[in-house]
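Technical note accompanying the year-one report. For the benefit of new consortium partners, we illustrate the data format agreed upon in the data management plan: each record pairs a sequence with a structure-token string. No post-processing was applied to the example shown here.
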Amino acid sequence: MADLTLGAYLFGLWHALRSAVQLCLRARISGAPGPSAPRQRHGLFIGALWFLAAGLAATSQGPAQAQTNSIVLASTTSTEQSGLFGHLLPAFKEATGINVRVVAVGTGQALDIGRRGDADVVFVHDTAAEEKFVAEGFATQRRNVMVNDFVLIGPKTDPAGARGADIGAALKKLATRSQAFVSRGDKSGTHAAELRLWKAAGVDVGASKPAGYRECGCGMGPALNIAASTNAYVLADRGTWLAFRNRGDLTILVEGDKSLFNQYGVMVVNPARHPHVKAAPAQRFADWVVSPAGQSVIASYKIGGEQLFFPNARP
């Protein structure tokens, strides 16, 4: 009965009780229920009570069992929207029996979830912010897991003339030519990287945003959709771009610049700060994704024959 869902249990209880009430009403209306009616009513009543007891047992034991065998993972939209977790997490569950519930938000929000103790493990891509998370005592260790890279996406016609291998030069052109640019604007790892790149290019978007600069406050997928519908430029992680299908007239214009490197890390939330976190299964996840088995699964994830993430955990 541990597998009985609450919805199925309530429906079954409602059906059994309804049948008992209907039979009782028919007996009262007829005035002559017959010798078998009391036994039928008694049987339905006992059945309803049994169903109630079984359901209560299932709902009291099932969730408890599920909770001890599951963890909450706060992560980025790029790891989910690229399809990586759909490939990675089933392999982890098969290896360990542990279920993982993903909360996919921007890196800044994912770290805040960890700070509040609302996640057991954090898997994000902003090394400086992650190191601060550890320094603040919200985790005791940060470990490299994998890399991919950022790419500048824009219209195939490239009206800003941004195409090339130099992201700094491309952003300077976007700033001076008033071309539409969609920023995540959500304190995510991608947004943090974008702000660093603008700053390195000598453009302070915090003080004075270029004419075409627009913040969506959204995830990577929605930002790409906005760019596709408005023929705008956008900085994206390669993994999400490869998984994105609504490309319209967009294409990769800048790639390969070393400053577009995108490192992902994993951290277990410190149980000394939040004693309720499931540190043991969370540590199993962190250990597994940096193990040869986990790294192999990451490397095997491809779209159209192209590898999206490259494992780089240190032994």
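Partners are asked to follow this layout when depositing records. The longest strand covers residues 143-155.
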